[in-house]
Design goal:
This protein is an alpha/beta fold and about 290 residues long. The protein has 11 helices and 8 strands. Strands 1-2-3-4-5-6-7-8 form an 8-stranded parallel barrel, surrounded by 6 helices. Bound molecules: flavin-adenine dinucleotide.
Length: about 290
């Protein structure tokens, strides 16, 4: 089933992201965690893709397992920045052979110490979107977007201009980078719509459940942490169990506010934590009484 059909269905949905193992020694434990998450019957799931090798081979096998075993539609991430055209074609063949029909088309981060080189086969996600369309026009393609502006962009106007190019190339929906203040997302929506982008925008919510994760996450994404969250961190950050609960409550508050303001689909970065995914699904059990179309 295509992810866009789920996003366009009438009822609210909550979808969950997982990541594949970096090394084969972790495959079984990570597969088990992703299966526990799939058993919660989210609207759909997404499986991330490690740029520059590492986890790339595992994205497709984890995604295929979840879709076949749990009948949950899966969005396989695919990035292009350090790949050749041949490499991307091979990945697309793998995805197709696995029966997967949904791809989140990404550029990926520029490897440290390098610049976006003219010699590379790909420079931006838009080129990957075009490539996927050429490969198989029936694949449902999503893309990433950044309510707090992508770190490589000079300003939001430029960023949204390029986002429009990506959508025009064939992105059917967009998923946002995490944010911790919903007003940032609502402001972004106004600007995106004003720029003529009409596809669904699915907000991405990250339950921050421990301090180490927090430092890593914020350093990578450039996301701003509101004072309200920092107070919560000051109070509960040193107590692991309390911090986990506080992070789930904070994410739940963000999600209920999004649903209440008419956003139908929310994507949660579940970080392969079934217990966190379970709490969230429980928190929205009445609201999410929906039927897959
Ligand atoms: P793009 O859409 O190409 O944008 C990157 C930058 O280039 C932006 O600043 C944009 O404005 C600019 N730009 C675009 N086109 C042009 C142009 N023609 N000229 C000049 N500038 C241009 N990374 C992974 O490695 N694996 C994953 O699985 C993964 N999953 C993600 C999921 C989500 C929902 C999000 C939000 C991010 C994810 N990332 C992942 C991170 C992502 O790869 C990085 O943020 C990366 O730096 C940008 O990827 P993009 O697809 O958004 O790039």
């Amino acid at each position: 089933m295509k992810v866009i059909d789920i996003i366009n269905s009438e009822n609210p949905t909550l979808s969950l992201e997982v990541f594949p193992p970096k090394v084969s020694a972790k495959y079984e434990s990570i597969e088990k965690a992703t299966e526990e998450i799939a058993a919660l019957k989210p609207g759909f799931m997404s499986v991330t893709y490690g740029a520059g090798g590492g986890t790339s081979d595992f994205t497709v096998s984890i995604a295929e397992n979840l879709e076949k075993k749990f009948d949950v539609p899966v969005l396989a991430h695919l990035s292009c920045i350090s790949s050749t055209k041949e490499g991307v074609r091979t990945q697309l063949e793998h995805i197709k052979a696995a029966g997967l029909t949904n791809i989140l088309a990404l550029r990926g981060d520029i490897p440290e110490g390098m610049t976006n080189s003219e010699e590379w086969d790909y420079h931006y996600a838009t080129e990957l979107v075009r490539e996927i369309k050429e490969f198989d026009k029936d694949i449902c393609i999503g893309g990433a977007c950044y309510p707090e502006v992508h770190p490589d962009s000079e300003n939001q106007v430029e960023d949204i201009k390029h986002l429009k190019e990506k959508v025009d190339a064939g992105c059917e929906f967009l998923t946002t980078q995490m944010f911790f203040d919903n007003n940032i997302f609502y402001n972004f929506l106004y600007k995106v719509r004003e720029a003529g982008i009409t596809v669904p925008i699915v907000p991405g919510i990250m339950p921050l459940t421990n301090i180490n994760q927090l430092k890593r996450t914020l350093a990578l994404s450039g996301t701003v942490l509101p004072l309200r969250f920092r107070y919560l961190l000051d109070k509960f950050g040193s107590d692991e169990a309390a911090m986990k609960q506080a992070g789930i409550i904070y994410a739940s508050e963000q999600i209920i506010d999004l649903y209440a303001n008419g956003i139908k689909n929310v994507h949660v970065y579940s970080m392969n934590k079934p217990e966190v995914a379970l709490k969230l699904m429980e928190n929205f059990s009445e609201i999410l009484k929906w039927q897959r179309p």
